[in-house]
């Protein structure tokens, strides 16, 4: 199946789980929240390195922007409360005062020209617009400095010329981009966006080498989003695919890597099917996931956790030697344990990140 055909199929999956994904993963699972906080700080530091070294107008392009995490972040950091309508000011002030990392930054305001985001899920983009307009007081900035587009990341073109592009693809978005073909098409497109302007691309991916315990625990904790993983077997022998809502009793953390999870199972009408059902890991299927990086569920969800070798091989194919690989835990030992970073393009900026640990590939 070609990657565009896979994308069409995946749209339905992500549209159906968008709200649950936002609540249970983006704002819910402690280890995902921690890793995204690391990514936020990483992108912040790269933007400020670009400002310091290049003194150029930056355009941030978020490929697979989901519910607009970076739109809210950089909308808040580049918008002074005095510059929004009175009706929005309270929401923006509340956001900035509650999050010191989102306070107005005049330097970033002067240098960040625009934030573009593209996603193939209309439901995700609706969540992003809702967060910007209703929760953050940034509605007047939308379509002014912040832009949301529906489409394929591999085909996105900014609406106006850019000076210095910073292209990001975060939280393993490359792993859900329609298999290896889609991932290679994504890398090729990042090169097309970055190279003509001397910009930089940043990919944050989850590592196959960290599947046990991180992927196992994460997916077992969030079955209400992605469904029953194929390495789990219910004690009653049944398979709960599409049409079932499986809600684990608690978040499983990597430090407590039990081989089972307890959950309540509901049908599509919200009626209880199993009040407390235990799911056990199947050892041979766990080994398959660890050896291949392929994450499958009975609800047709798919993700890939690439190994360092696989990711660097794809980058070599599309970028040659113009990229650097960094184990995320060497940049941030506490928050980056399950990830890896690839920096594409501007060697001076990439070198500053890699100074904390990593290697040229």
What does this structure look like?
This protein is an alpha/beta fold and 361 residues long. It has 2 domains: 260 residues, Rossmann fold, CATH 3.40.50; 90 residues, no CATH class. An 8-stranded mixed β-sheet has the order 3-2-1-4-5-13-12-14, with helices on both faces. Strands 6-9-8-7 form a 4-stranded antiparallel β-sheet. α7 crosses α11. The two termini are 30 Å apart. 46% of the residues are buried. The C terminus is likely disordered.
Topology (SSEs and partners):
Blueprint: H1 3-26, H2 30-54, E1 58-63, H3 69-77, H4 86-98, H5 106-111, E2 112-119, H6 122-135, E3 146-150, E4 164-169, H7 179-194, E5 200-206, H8 211-221, H9 223-226, E6 232-234, E7 245-248, E8 260-266, E9 272-281, H10 283-292, E10 294-296, E11 302-304, H11 308-319, E12 323-327, H12 328-331, E13 339-345, H13 347-354, E14 359-360
Parallel strand pairs: 1-2, 1-4, 2-3, 4-5
Antiparallel strand pairs: 5-13, 6-9, 7-8, 8-9, 10-11, 12-13, 12-14
Helix pairs in contact: 1-6, 7-11
Summarize the structure.
The chain is α/β, with parallel strands linked by helices and 361 residues long.
List keywords for this structure.
21% strand, eight-stranded mixed beta sheet, 361 residues, four-stranded antiparallel beta sheet, 13 helices, Rossmann fold, single chain, disordered C terminus, alpha/beta
Q: Give the proportion of residues in helices.
A: 40-55%
Query: Between the first and last Cα atoms, what is the distance in angstroms?
Result: 30 Å
* Overall pLDDT metric: 92
Unreliably modeled segments: 357-361
- How is the largest sheet built, in terms of strand order? 3-2-1-4-5-13-12-14
Task: Indicate the structural class.
Answer: alpha/beta
Could you tell me the CATH topology label of the largest domain: Rossmann fold
């Amino acid at each position: 199946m070609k990657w565009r055909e896979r994308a069409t199929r995946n749209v339905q999956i992500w549209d159906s789980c968008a709200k649950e994904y936002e609540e249970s993963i983006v704002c819910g699972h402690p280890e995902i929240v921690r890793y995204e906080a690391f990514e936020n700080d990483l992108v912040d530091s790269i933007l400020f390195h670009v400002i310091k070294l290049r003194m150029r107008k930056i355009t941030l392009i978020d490929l697979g922007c989901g519910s607009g995490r970076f739109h809210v972040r950089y909308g808040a950091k580049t918008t002074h409360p005095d510059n929004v309508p009175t009706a929005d000011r309270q929401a923006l002030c509340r956001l900035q005062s509650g999050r010191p990392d989102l306070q107005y930054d005049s330097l970033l305001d002067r240098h960040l020209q625009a934030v573009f985001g593209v996603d193939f899920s209309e439901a995700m983009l609706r969540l992003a617009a809702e967060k910007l307009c209703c929760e953050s007081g940034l509605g007047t900035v939308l379509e002014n400095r912040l832009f949301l587009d529906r489409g394929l990341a591999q085909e996105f073109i900014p609406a106006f010329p850019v000076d210095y592009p910073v292209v990001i693809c975060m939280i393993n978005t490359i792993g859900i981009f329609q298999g290896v073909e889609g991932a290679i098409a994504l890398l090729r497109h990042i090169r097309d966006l970055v190279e003509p302007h001397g910009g930089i691309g940043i990919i944050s991916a989850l590592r196959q080498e960290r599947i046990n315990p991180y992927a196992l625990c994460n997916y077992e904790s969030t079955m209400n989003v992605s469904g029953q993983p194929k390495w789990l077997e219910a004690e009653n022998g049944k398979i709960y695919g599409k049409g079932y809502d499986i809600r684990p009793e608690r978040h499983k953390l990597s430090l407590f890597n039990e081989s089972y999870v307890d959950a309540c199972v509901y049908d599509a009408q919200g009626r209880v099917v199993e009040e407390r059902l235990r799911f056990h890991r199947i050892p041979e299927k766990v080994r398959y996931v660890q050896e291949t990086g392929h994450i499958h569920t009975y609800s047709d969800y798919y993700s890939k956790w690439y190994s360092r070798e696989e990711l660097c091989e794809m980058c070599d194919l599309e970028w040659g030697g113009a990229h650097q690989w960094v184990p995320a835990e060497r940049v941030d030992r506490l928050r980056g344990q399950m990830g890896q970073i690839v920096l594409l393009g501007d060697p001076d900026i990439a070198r500053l990140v890699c100074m904390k640990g990593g290697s040229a590939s």
